[in-house]
Specification:
Largest interface: A-B, 66 and 98 residues
Structural class of chain B: alpha+beta
Pfam families (chain B): Hydantoinase_B (PF02538)
Number of helices of chain B: 16
GO biological process, one term (chain B): glutathione metabolic process
Number of helices of chain A: 17
Number of strands of chain A: 35
InterPro entries (chain B): Hydantoinase_B, Oxoprolinase-like
GO molecular function, one term (chain B): 5-oxoprolinase (ATP-hydrolyzing) activity
Strand content of chain B: 15-25%
Strand content of chain A: 25-35%
GO cellular component, one term (chain B): cytosol
Strand order of the largest sheet of chain B: 2-1-5-4-3-6-7
Number of domains of chain B: 3
Shape of chain B: globular
Oligomer: heterodimer
Largest sheet of chain A: 9 strands, mixed
Largest sheet of chain B: 7 strands, antiparallel
Distance between the termini of chain B: 70 Å
Chain lengths: 694, 598
């Protein structure tokens, strides 16, 4: 096995994680170079190469796999720099993207602007045709309406075309013919067909997927082709794979034809890394993953080793952003982080966020002109952050500025002292995070008390143990890779391809032949994917099957796993029904035993498992100097709180709270009544309910 | 039994401000979890797609505590429901659930089945979890949940449940279930919806019990008082910023059979900034009318409160604490008051309620620039109608449900254009839109067109959202469409110089292409080959259109919401079609147009 290179490019930083042929991991960080991504990656790679003791060109030439994670697509949508895209829709329905699926937050607020459609009305063109729900053609495709749409789109300056016709999932012929006509008269313009990118019922979701995908094609094709060329020029002969929102990776050729899969891929890798460390350090497969940065807090979930997925991923706020429509790693994200600003409303109530001080001017304690009190300032005031040793000493914090901001903006208006005010800010920030965690767990029938909480990100260690304790998680894990959880996740990722086919079946009179024909089709499509994989890395292929099911008349499904890729016996049908009743009761408190169960979406997931790095034990820790400083826990000052330098702690050491552990990229707060254990890998496993005399 | 005085005690321990915010968020997330349960498990599309239901938490002494994003028309007055639960039952205990749809005892209308689950801690009743869901059918004589022409409860024909126990010891009382199954169309659909509402209320119960166990009943009680007080303070602040004035608002529902002048509604609002209080008087309204249009007590109260809250510039928490600053005077046996049995209130949640909301929010515009809202679109046309018939695609089975795929426009406001997918004032953009594909899969109908229409917006500095044209028809066998249009003879008006929108009308299109105008309130059996089409209202405009930002006008012309001619005539903005770059703004010409008018 050769090297394995994982690169995660964000808006500001590029994280690189290299696994050497022995599976040792090396981390480094550099600035992102938007003009030519490869330059930034190369710079960061140099740092890692130095640590490994091998030249960069050699590492690239000997690499089997290059895993590329990019926020390029997501950022292009946010910054509105995607291609000018035309939408071709069924005549009579030009307003699918404008009307969306309705819904609005804040019932009495009429001063919210109505969201703009992803493709404006003046770039939407109607095609005369109609298919019904059974796939029958009611109005044949009128080719002159297609010709007119093509000419009009071209005149309007379109650079890509999204084709989304009603019921193309029941009969795709019209969409296919439209593509043919476009290729004839306008060769080379990128086209996305709705039944191909997202074969699901509900025209808004499918159209939204189609429009977003088409708008990304010119940009992502150019971007990925350039990376591929740069890598080839550097002598790379391995597989270039790209991280997707499904928590896996796809080959470049696949991503170029459906770039939508890279949208919102940013947070999808944290649970992959967290899962690997939880398995290694805590021997558990049920985890809650919290990734806390400066401006956002992302929560995801792993159950029985499976990363939780959703079909409702919004770019921007729910109902007001744009839905991607794909099955993606479910991430509940809130705009809460170290930079969130605390403020008092006109009723005298304390609020934290959603406004953030960002990195400029930043929290008051950064000393860059910020005067608003933030969560970071509160952490300084209560003594959690060491002003002289923040980010490994790279950023000196101004504790007086933090105290002043909290005194004047929060403590005085509330009539409490600064410490109490700082604690209140932290508690309220925690509450928003608890709300986000409950949304992804209890709202879907998952009990957080049965999970280990895994925390990553720069702000992750600050309140991870507190969150775990409050939610009743018995253990909290802060992995050794906490500072670069996403790039690390790319090291542990696999190539994943999902195939979904819609076919109705009911357990009341199960049509085995029809369902098995669908499952066979899924197998064939997965076979084809394997044939095209053409990888030089060692892969093991896994296949899993599931079905989305519901009670009659319901329209939202729940996922039911299948034991194998065929349903042949009555016992297997009964098992589908039994599993559905159980999951329905767990999720929604009621079940209707005896009622038939309708099965709608049959799904196959092919995983090409790549060789993984191993998590190694950390080597020779030195003696452990302890310093002491006052810090506040549960309303009381602990004057002599012990503070440890994390990198010096020996494996097996037990650190009882109250204590603070300073790592280069994060600070871990261990409250009283909890205990951290230093694991051989360098991770910390914290028991949230622990007492001295136990 | 609870002692209602102990939660109102003034000498309680103060709740620290942090816990106050923590618990307030927690209550909202419990309601959201209830809401999610009902949406995901509901069987009829009006629940699982359009979300015509609401969940709330009420204290044991009958005060609304939290409703998150519930429909305001549903949740204001939740306390009336729990009050009747306590009045009718002196043996409430853990494991009970009650079914309530009685508009004479606090419910909105018969079609809203409400499940009430009392929540106990150590044998003491602390809260009631409430889940109210609009049914696809409620056993009415005609296949619609809006019996507009029924002259009383007997003609309506709905099954009435005056807060009856439907579960004891967490088990169904099958007598009630059997009654519903015998009288409600498509009983399996009803039973699934019943389970969905029950599940939502039980989820609320489960979470509330956990919360009380975690913090203790004393802390939770204190929290409730503090939260009510905080909410009240926020409302007082809003009201004390208003001028001391008495204003009145009015509106007239379109004519109906036997009511050639329509149904007038009026509200008088006395603003008392010194007291931080608004008094709304509805007692001047006419007596109850002999059809289904009368409001119930719950909807009369909520319509006024909604109209007031809609126009507040800042959001306040919506619960008993803020609502107690609004006093609503109602009169018995009035069309917008307290109905006497057997007066019919079948349509109490929409038409007259919508007129009253519009009248109230628009009245505030009299206070000056920056106050009030224009009127929003009116009437549930065929695209929001109840469809029924038999589905021959799957063995000739009956179906009935309200569809929700039309669109109509929201009102212009002091700082923003109207919300586009608005529905009607009581829905206020909160409801979800049916997917055409899901609707066509579930019912044997074919939708022809859903299109926003140019030049239908109420023009204004901030315009109303445009209306739409929606048409559909049966696939193979006839489909009955029941609908209740308003806004035809008197379309929603603008305020402060803003203009009215277009009339809402309904037509039948025959196979030969001819259009036949239909009555505005009725039920029509549409035959295969025919289409039923409605053109909905937009919203009224706010402020004079000639003061509108020309760039907004340009956007509207580009996107086909306003024609270039109308831009010139009404907005006094010159938008020209430039062959090379499409529509562009002519600033000089606009300047000339706008100054020449003065």
């Amino acid at each position: 096995m050769g090297y394995r290179i994982a690169v995660d490019t964000g808006g500001t930083f590029t994280d690189v994680v290299v696994a050497d042929p022995h599976g040792h991991l090396f981390f480094s960080k550099g600035l992102t170079t938007p003009d030519r991504m490869f330059d930034g990656a190369l710079e960061a790679l140099k740092v890692a190469a130095e640590e490994i003791g091998v030249e960069v060109p050699r590492i690239i030439q000997d690499a089997d796999v290059f895993v590329y994670g990019t926020t390029r697509a997501t950022n292009a949508i946010i910054e509105k720099t995607t291609a000018t895209t035309a939408l071709f829709c069924t005549e009579g329905f030009p307003d699918v993207l404008t009307l969306r699926e309705g819904g609005k937050l804040q019932p009495f607020n009429f001063r919210l602007p109505y969201p703009q459609p992803y493709v404006p009305r003046h770039l939407t063109f109607e095609i005369r045709e109609r298919v019904d729900s059974q796939g029958n053609t009611l109005i044949a495709l009128q080719e002159d309406s297609v010709a007119h749409a093509i000419a009009a789109a071209r005149a309007a300056g379109a650079e890509a075309i999204a084709v989304s016709l009603l019921w193309s999932i029941a009969n795709p012929e019209h969409e296919q013919r439209v593509r043919h006509l476009i290729e004839e008269s306008w060769p080379g313009v990128p086209v996305t067909l709705s039944h191909q990118i997202n074969p699901t019922i509900r025209e808004y979701r499918r159209t939204s997927s189609t429009a977003i995908d088409a708008s990304l094609k010119p940009l992502m094709q150019a971007h990925l082709t350039a990376i591929e060329a740069d890598l080839a020029a550097a002598g790379f002969q391995g597989d270039l794979v790209v991280v997707t929102s499904a928590g896996g990776a796809l080959t470049v050729s696949e991503v170029v034809s459906r770039p939508l899969h890279t949208v919102s891929s940013g947070p999808s890798m944290a649970p992959v890394a967290a899962r690997a460390y939880a398995d290694h350090d805590a021997r558990t497969q049920n985890i809650l993953v919290c990734d806390a940065g400066g401006t956002s807090f992302d929560v995801s979930l792993v159950q029985d080793g499976q990363i939780k997925r959703t079909r409702e991923t919004w770019l921007g706020p729910k109902y007001q952003g744009h839905i991607t429509g794909l099955s993606s790693v479910e991430v509940t994200s809130i705009g809460s982080g170290g930079g969130s600003i605390a403020w008092i409303d006109d009723g005298g109530l304390l609020n934290v966020g959603p406004a953030s001080a960002g990195s400029v001017p930043g929290p008051a304690c950064y000393g860059r002109g910020g005067t608003e009190p933030t969560v970071t300032d509160a952490a300084v005031v209560v003594g959690y952050f060491n002003p002289d040793h923040f980010l490994d000493g790279r950023l000196a914090l101004d504790a007086d500025a933090a105290r002043e901001a909290i005194r004047s903006r929060v403590a005085e208006p509330l009539g409490i002292d600064e410490t109490a005010a700082a604690e209140a800010i932290l508690a309220l920030a925690n509450e928003a995070m608890i709300g986000a965690i409950r949304e992804i767990t209890v709202n879907q029938g998952v009990d957080p008390r049965e999970c280990t909480l895994v925390a990553g990100g720069g702000a992750g260690g600050l309140n991870a143990v507190y969150l775990g304790r409050e939610l009743g998680c018995p253990r909290v894990l802060i992995p050794a890779s906490a500072g670069a959880l996403s790039a690390c996740g790319a090291q542990f990722s696999d190539i994943i391809n999902d195939v979904t086919v819609s076919r109705f079946a009911t357990t009341a009179s199960f049509d085995h032949d029809s369902v098995n024909a669908v499952l066979e089709e899924i197998d064939e499509r997965m076979d084809e994917f394997v044939r095209n994989l053409n990888t030089r890395a060692d892969v093991a292929i896994d296949r899993e099957y599931s079905v989305e099911a519901r009670y009659p008349h319901q329209v939202w499904e729940l996922d039911v796993p299948l034991d194998r890729g065929r349903v042949e016996t009555e016992a297997e049908v009964a098992e589908i029904a039994a599993r559905f009743h159980d999951v329905h009761e767990r999720t929604f408190a009621v079940k209707e035993v005896g009622q038939a169960v309708e099965c709608q979406y049959w799904r196959g997931r092919l995983t090409a498992r790549l060789a993984k790095p191993r998590i190694h034990d950390r080597e020779g820790a030195g003696p452990s100097p302890v310093t002491h400083r006052p810090a506040v826990f549960d309303g009381a000052v602990v004057p002599e709180t012990p503070c440890y330098q994390g990198r010096t702690l020996p494996a097996g050491l037990s650190v009882p709270g109250p204590a603070i552990i300073e790592e280069p990229l994060t600070t871990i707060v261990i409250p009283p009544g909890t205990r951290a254990r230093v694991m051989p890998s360098g991770s910390y496993l914290v028991d949230t309910d622990w007492s001295d005399d136990a | 039994m609870p002692d209602p005085t102990d939660t109102r005690a003034r000498d309680r321990a103060p709740v620290d401000p942090v816990l106050l915010a923590v618990l307030a968020n927690r209550m909202d997330s419990i309601v959201r979890e209830m809401t999610n349960t009902l949406l995901r498990t509901g069987r009829s599309a009006i629940l699982n797609t359009a979300r015509d239901f609401s969940c709330s938490i009420v204290t044991a002494d009958d005060r609304l505590l939290s409703a998150a994003e519930g429909l305001p028309i549903h949740i204001v007055g939740s306390d009336l429901l729990t009050r009747s639960m306590q009045r009718f039952h002196d043996d409430i205990r853990e494991g009970d659930a009650f079914l309530h749809n009685d508009p004479y005892n606090g419910n909105t209308h018969h079609a809203d089945h409400t499940i009430l689950v009392p929540v106990f801690h150590d044998g003491v009743h602390l809260f009631t979890a409430v889940a109210k869901a609009h049914q696809a059918d409620c056993g009415n004589a005609e296949p619609t949940t809006y019996a507009a022409h029924a002259k009383d409860i007997y003609e309506e024909g709905a099954l009435n449940f005056p807060c009856v126990r439907v579960q004891r010891e967490h088990k169904n009382i099958d007598d009630i279930i059997r009654m519903c199954r015998q009288r409600i169309r498509v009983p399996d659909q009803w039973y699934g919806d019943y389970l969905a509402a029950l599940g939502a209320a039980r989820i609320g119960e489960r979470r509330l019990k956990e919360l009380v166990k975690r913090y203790g009943p004393e802390t939770i009680r204190n929290f409730c008082e503090e939260w009510f007080d905080y909410s009240e303070r926020r409302m007082v602040q809003q009201i004390s910023a208003l001028p001391a004035l008495t204003i009145s608002g009015s509106g007239v529902h379109d004519p109906l059979p036997g009511l050639p002048d329509g149904i007038p509604v009026t509200v008088e609002l006395t603003i008392k900034p010194d007291e931080g209080r608004i008094v709304a008087d509805l007692t001047q309204n006419i007596d109850a009318v002999p059809n289904g249009m009368n409001l119930s007590e719950a909807t009369a109260l909520s319509s006024v409160i909604i109209g007031i809250c809609n126009q507040l510039p800042t959001q306040v928490p919506h619960n008993d604490g803020s609502f107690r600053r609004i006093e609503v005077k109602l009169r018995e046996n009035s069309v917008a008051g307290i109905p006497r049995h057997p007066t019919s209130c079948s349509v109490a949640t929409t038409n007259v309620a919508d007129r009253l909301i519009n009248a109230t929010q628009a009245a505030f515009a009299q206070l000056g620039e920056g106050f009030g809202l224009a009127e929003g679109a009116l009437g549930q046309g065929p695209g929001f109608g109840v469809v029924s018939g038999r589905d021959t695609r799957s063995g000739d089975v009956p179906f009935i449900n309200q569809v929700y795929f039309a669109s109509s426009g929201g009102p212009g406001t002091p700082g923003e254009d109207g919300w586009l997918f608005y529905g009607i004032p009581v829905a206020a953009g909160l409801m979800f839109r049916d997917s055409v594909e899901v609707a066509e899969q579930k019912y044997p109908i074919l939708v022809d067109e859903i299109r926003l229409l140019a030049d239908t917006e109420g023009a204004g500095t901030f315009r109303g959202a445009p209306g739409a044209r929606v048409s559909f028809g049966p696939l193979e066998s006839p489909v009955t469409v029941a609908y209740t249009v308003d806004g035809n003879s008197r379309p929603p008006a603008g305020v402060r110089g803003g203009q009215a929108t277009v009339p809402h009308d309904v037509h039948l299109i025959h196979p030969d292409g001819s259009w036949q105008e239909l009555v505005t309130v009725g039920a029509v059996e549409v035959q295969p080959g025919q289409k039923i089409v409605s053109r909905t209202n937009g919203g009224g405009g706010y402020g004079p259109p000639e003061a509108r930002d020309p760039l907004r006008v340009l956007d509207d012309v580009r996107n086909g919401f306003v024609s270039a001619e109308r831009a010139r005539e009404v907005y006094r903005v010159a938008v020209v079609d430039d062959a090379a770059s499409g529509y562009v703004l002519s600033l000089a010409e606009t300047e000339r147009l706008r100054t020449s008018r003065r």
